[in-house]
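quick one before i forget lol
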Amino acid sequence: MKPKKPIETLIITIRNQKVILDADLAEVYDVPTKRLNEQVKRNADRFPEDFMFQLTAPELENLKSQIATSSLGVTEAEGIKTSWSQIVTSSHGGRRKLPFAFTEHGAIMAATILNSPEAVAMSVFVVRAFLQMREQLAANAAILKRLAEIDRTLLEHDSALRAIWTKLQPLLAPPPEPPRRRIKGFNPHDE
């Protein structure tokens, strides 16, 4: 079973956490958002704050403004595309409640409470998407660390080369002209 959209495009950053919104997660698990949220309410003890949280009105407005600034209805929030319809609309003309955001663990837990074959199968894709994003972040951090090391080495070499150049400059200058040898008797000022 394959997801309709790449899951990586549904993962966004809110409160410095990688999350997937309830409407997107419901679409991935092929259930209505309302059913997903009902099951989450019935199993609230399985969803602590580090698994799921509800967006605040300012966070939702910020998300809407990010999306509204795009001429195509799609934004690049943290390099991830999110469509306007995923966040603010439903078949009834709009959301009545603030959306929930599920972390990686919350998305997996949602699959366990839905108990549908689609949810179980899709949970594997969700886990892989979060893992892939984590690996990319780790790779980027390693690259940045290596670049910092190279930069530091170049600065050390630069100062060493500058010191060598300073010492070589006097040696590279042409030697002063030796004084002319004087022959006695040929200089009118000699006695």
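fyi Helices lie at 22-28, 33-42, 57-68, 84-88, 104-114, 117-172.
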